Amino acid sequence: MWPTPPQEQTSFATDRCEGPNPLAFTRSLPYRRPMKPQSLQHLAEHLRQFAAERDWEQFHSPKNLAMALSVEVAEIVEHFQWLTEQQSRDLEPAKRAEVEQELADALIYLVRLADQLGIDLLEAAERKLAVNEAKYPAERVRGSPKKYSEYD
Predict the structure, then answer these.
(1) Closest Cα to residue 11, out of 2, 20, 19?
(2) Cβ(133)–Cβ(103) under 8 Å?
(3) Is the pTM of this model over 0.90?
(4) Mean pLDDT by 10 residues, the chain (152 residues)
């Protein structure tokens, strides 16, 4: 039996998959949401708590998390394999829901890995964007897919 959290933290998750999916289901389960992730830091804290409650920290080494992230990214790619460019933009609702789940899995592992390594992902992304802006000045690379080393 699920313990009932305080009223303000109780909500109901409804999972719905529609269409000709053999795995389609609808369910409502009460779950505890201690905080709605407003930032990657809040998400990292929630993931830390989630792992601690299950005694999973022992499995969450950077090596294992990087490997799990790689698997999840491959599962995202699998959804797009053999699609045309246009088909990849116009996913059916059930397929889009599946991709959403895989993206969430990848984000969870990425945030958990960064947390284990003490990396602030938002700061790292800002620094990397600055590097990319220097490598790829808009006035020089606009409309070109070339790598920075391929420009004169």
Answers:
(1) 2
(2) no
(3) no
(4) 38 41 41 63 96 97 98 98 97 98 98 97 97 94 92 78
